[in-house]
């Protein structure tokens, strides 16, 4: 099923929220392993222990890294998207020198990258306490609150961030996301336009602007925003689903199918058009599109079958509806 357009955090650009799990490999006993003589093992360890006194511990000759070196190494790890290791180095830099506020900001953003919201919030709040006029600290706090669904707190923090530094397109974009979730779409559109004035070709912001227009009922303006995002060449697949829905609302069905095709494969493009039509109350056309999806891939398309059932039910419940078998003989998927 088509994922309905969402104006949540999925298109927040600039900070990618990803889940990086540090996992270990648990050992397991192998029944085929040879028997082990513990007494021989103890004797071997005693011999090694006696010999170790004549050797210098290599680790003792390696000097501890300075906070500056930990920060530089963390920066390189972050550029390689090795966020867990970058976090380790930033943490060591801060332990050695808690006054390195730039590192605290980086560590907060690293936690945010990994979806570790509470540790991220702790770092941003600590930075805000140490530097009350730090716009990035307030932005980070607002970003975390947004992801936690604390919209009032998020808006307060982001408004403060913009007051301190109005040149951050990300702060404007995040504020727009907050306002969208509160269904204050006109205000959100203003915020997204402010972000685009600073960063004109950011596909995530253009997508958010399109969603705000669509939620306001202005599908023509939504199409323009989506098309601008697509023209950047780096738009995510979900944007094409949103564009397809907007085309469907304007009855540009061929364009809608073409947009859905860029986001998925042939059966799903017909399914997605069917979902859009069903959401618009056009159950007869939706039935035809779901049947077309199943016809394209009858072996493995359970979702279209379930959507077809719902569309037929909606058609049967409509005041002017006819039976599904009668409705689809004369109507084809656009």
Features:
about 325 residues; disordered N terminus; elongated; 17 helices; mainly alpha
Distance between the termini: 18 Å
Shape designation: elongated
Beta-strand portion reads under 5%
Assembly state here? Answer: single chain
Q: What's the number of helices?
A: 17
Low-confidence stretches: 1-38, 51-61, 319-329
The secondary-structure class comes to mainly alpha
Instruction: Tell me the helix content.
Output: 55-70%
Mean pLDDT: 81
- Find the count of extended strands (DSSP E, 2+ residues): 0
Cα-atom Rg, whole angstroms? 28 Å
Major pleated sheet = none
The helix-strand sequence is HHHHHHHHHHHHHHHHH
Protein model, in words:
Helix 2 (67-79) packs antiparallel against helix 3, helix 8 (169-181) runs antiparallel to helix 9 (185-198) and helix 10 (203-215) packs parallel to helix 12. This protein has 334 residues and is mostly helical. It has a domain at 264-334. It has 17 helices and no strands.
């Amino acid at each position: 099923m088509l994922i309905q357009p969402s104006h949540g955090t999925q298109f927040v650009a600039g900070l990618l929220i990803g889940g990086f799990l540090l996992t270990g490999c648990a050992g397991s006993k192998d029944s085929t392993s040879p028997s082990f003589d513990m007494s021989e093992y103890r004797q071997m360890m005693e011999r090694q222990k006696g010999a170790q006194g004549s050797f210098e511990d290599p680790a003792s000759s390696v000097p501890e890294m300075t906070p500056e070196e930990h920060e530089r190494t963390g920066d390189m790890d972050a550029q390689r998207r090795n966020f867990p290791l970058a976090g380790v180095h930033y943490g060591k830099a801060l332990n050695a020198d808690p006054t390195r506020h730039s590192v605290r900001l980086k560590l907060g953003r690293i936690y945010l990258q990994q979806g570790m919201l509470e540790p991220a919030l702790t770092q941003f709040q600590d930075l805000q306490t140490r530097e009350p006029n730090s716009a990035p600290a307030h932005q980070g706090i607002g970003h975390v609150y947004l992801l936690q669904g604390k919209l009032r707190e998020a808006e307060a923090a982001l408004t403060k961030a913009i007051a301190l530094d109005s040149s951050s397109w990300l702060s404007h974009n995040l504020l727009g996301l907050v306002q969208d979730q509160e269904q204050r779409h006109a205000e959100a559109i203003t915020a997204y336009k402010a972000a685009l004035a600073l960063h004109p070709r950011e596909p995530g912001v253009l997508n958010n602007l399109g969603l705000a227009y669509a939620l306001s009922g202005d599908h023509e303006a939504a199409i323009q925003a989506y098309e601008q995002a697509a023209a950047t060449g780096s738009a995510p697949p979900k944007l094409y689903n949103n564009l397809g829905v907007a085309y469907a609302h304007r009855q540009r069905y061929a364009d809608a199918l073409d947009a859905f095709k860029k986001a998925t494969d042939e059966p799903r493009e017909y399914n997605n058009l069917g979902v859009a039509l069903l959401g618009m109350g056009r159950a007869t056309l939706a039935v035809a599109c779901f049947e077309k999806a199943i016809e394209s891939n009858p072996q493995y398309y359970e979702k279209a079958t379930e959507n077809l059932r719902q569309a037929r039910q909606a058609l049967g419940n409509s005041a002017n509806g006819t039976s599904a078998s009668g409705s689809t003989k004369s109507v084809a998927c656009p």
